[in-house]
Amino acid sequence: MRSVPVRAWAYIGCVALCAALCAGPALTSAGTPWGAVALLAVLYAGCEQITRCRFLGQRAPRGMVAFFPVLLAGAFLLPPAAAALVAVPGAVFARVERSPATPRRIWRGAQLAVACAAAATVHVALGGRELLAAGTPPTPDFPAALAPATAAALAFALVVAALDGGILATAERVPLRTAWRGLFPRSLTPVVVHGFAGLMMAVLWRSPYGPPAALLVLLPMYLSCWVFAQYHRERAAHQATIRALVQAVDIKDEYTRGHSERVGEASVLIARELGMADERVEVLRFAGILHDVGKLGVPTRLLRKDGPLTPEERRIIELHPEYGHEMVRGISFLGEARAAILHHHERLDGSGYPYGLAGRQIPEFARVVAVADAFDAMTSTRSYSRGRPVADALTELKRCAGRQFDPQMVRALVRALDRHGWRPAVTADSPEGEGGRHRRNVPPPRGPRSPVAGDRAR
Amino acid sequence: MSAKVAATKVRAPLAVRAVHLVTALLVLGSLAHVLWSGLADRGVALAFGALVAVGELARGGDPAQEREPAPLGAAGALAYALLGENAGHPTMHSALQVVAVTSAAFLVGCVPQVALGRAPLPDHLARRVLSTAFAAVCFQPLYNSGKLTDLLGPGPAYALWLVVLLALTALCDAVLAAALVRARTRWPFGPLLRDELRAMRGIGSAVGATGVVLALAVAVAGLWALPVFCLPLLLTQLSFSRYAAVRTTYRQTITSLARATEIAGYTPQGHARRVAALSRAVGRDLGLTAADLVVLEYAALMHDIGQLSLVDPVPDGATAVLPATEQRRIALLGGAVVRQTGVPADVAVVVELQADPYREQPLTARIVRTANAYDEMARKEGPGGPLAALERLRLGTGHDHQPEVVESLARVLSRGGLAPVGG
């Protein structure tokens, strides 16, 4: 458990005091609708708990947006002090992902209570209460009721973002300006969406159909929260794909792994230097990591051969770009990376393989990966040769630029290394030689009949 | 309803055509009725029609793969079927008008899809029209006659009644969907219905709840409720394509890994696909859930990955001839790769346990093991292969293969029809 800095405790204390001041009047006032407060509080607590259940076959993702529609409905229905109370039980009993739990719970409850009170105050001040049930029989006045509701939702988002920035600054020691940057704009869309849903809840709650009808609003809102959380999963799925392919190559020939990841790093350096857009940089990283995935198709005996290769064996090894392309061509998010995998052994003068493309015919990504591949091959230590110093390797690359490599890419690499140096952050690289390595990612032995991890038929 | 199901069981494709015919007649009849007698509450009808059409227009993905490709359109249709009031004033539209407006809007919304060459599936259209008609017939006549208001009044009981109707509609839709699949494929009806009902818990329940909320909200606040409440749902529907993209990525990764062993020459061409198809068929026959069938398919596609660790390929990829410890070692390495792909951990477990005696395996792993052994042996044995392979599997039921799984495999093979992978 990490210790919480004193100033963070002080900040949490201040916010909790504010929350108590906001909620205090509810306890003394005679007009507090305790029934509605209790019902909404239970509802909110239940919604927070529900994120532990499975839905659509999967557990709700971490960091899923909390159930703001209920809180906002409370802010539209209740006096500010009572609205502040709604958030407290749910926030205090919600699941906490990371320790320390106690300050996090207090913080969450206090923050949401203050935000709810602020939203309710804004709503009351703009006359939202009268617009929700105007005339006889009382009907909501649309579209006039939208304005105070939107303003209240914005106030809610603003308070949450401001307080979040504060806690980042005190607990994580992030500078205030950095902490606040982007917090509010990012929360705008979800909060407006939740504001509309909360408004619908409030309208139905006040209607003759009563709270049961308001409850129904939550089901579609849960779905919408869940789908928003998918944004995070897409990236995770891409990385899982890369990991799986790397692991597949790894169980065949663990030698290439560190090399692949370093080629990915070097490709990214070149791409940044060329000013590529972030998405393309990411795809180029994938291209670098996967450039040798076609080695899966080459017999393991050949990959491990120590002595010189016969022409026939060389021909078989030179098939690996085509094998690699054949493997990944169905994976659509790899995009341009697929061409890079096919063409990374082409040479600028047309003497490369598999197609003997020349000059600009070679896809840009392939020209980048070719330089990164050669650079890492020269600088890393292999069983048959010691790694050369970076400067030597760059001289060699420059010598071959124009014939084998694209001079533009070589220059970009030189500039990037001048600026950043070459410290590849490769986690999977193992420093030892070929033999006696321990396998990674093999599940632990399950009881006496499972084989020893790392035992390898050689 | 049970009579309809019984009928579908006997006459398979005919029943599907009958459902389509009924749908077409219903749509044409209701359109004729509306043209003849005019639209009641024109503004309300146009607003809901627009909602359904927008919902269809905004749908993404392949209708064949998505369970509910247009949640907003479905919710709008349901809401119109259950709509009784507009801002406190009773509406007067009939059940036939509901069918006419929603199906016309549905067809309008489909125009761009058709232009792109993706025709709406007749089954999908039939389900949508028939379930909307069911809800409307249950609600509108009773409401329009004034009996419902006398009985329940505008209060919580009215809202609960809508929820009951929603549940009935969902049940009707599930039965219809399961019956259609049953008629086409002859898979057992029970598990199909169970899967349909399970699927309702997720998207289906949210769509239904949206329909009820829209109906009630329009009753209270008028047509303004539609944009206010549908904007969030429209955003949801648009970001649904992200969810589809995640699943596509998983599927593509798995296919590519399944090809790896073939490209590397460890397994014969098409082996993984055949084992996946066989496993799914056996899983269907044994009444596994939809989730388990997905696990089966993924595990079967990737079951040979561990062989990449072999320095020399086993002839024909027939690992059954290797010593048991070696088989387990390969299985564990394969499981380690599968764990990286991000598919459910159950899949990795199946791959890891594929070489264990069947009593120590989950059912899914038993099925993959038996299907794999069958495919390896049947190919080797030549013309009489399938029978000889089944015979050898039966001999292995003491230790390696579960007798029930082998018998199920025999049933599947005798039917001759293998389900296409991914179906």
UniProtKB/TrEMBL annotation, chain A:
Species name: Streptomyces boluensis
Keyword Signal applies: yes
Signal sequence segment: 1-28
InterPro entries linked: Cyclic_di-GMP/3'3'-cGAMP_PDE (IPR052020), HD/PDEase_dom (IPR003607), HD_domain (IPR006674), HD_GYP_dom (IPR037522), HDIG_dom (IPR006675)
Protein name according to UniProt: HD domain-containing protein
Keyword set, alphabetical order: Membrane, Signal, Transmembrane, Transmembrane helix
Region described as Disordered: 424-458
HD-GYP domain span: 234-429
Keyword Calcium included in the entry's annotation: no
Membrane-spanning parts: 66-94, 106-126, 146-171, 183-205, 211-229
Taxonomic placement: Bacteria, Bacillati, Actinomycetota, Actinomycetes, Kitasatosporales
Record-annotated HD domain positions: 256-378
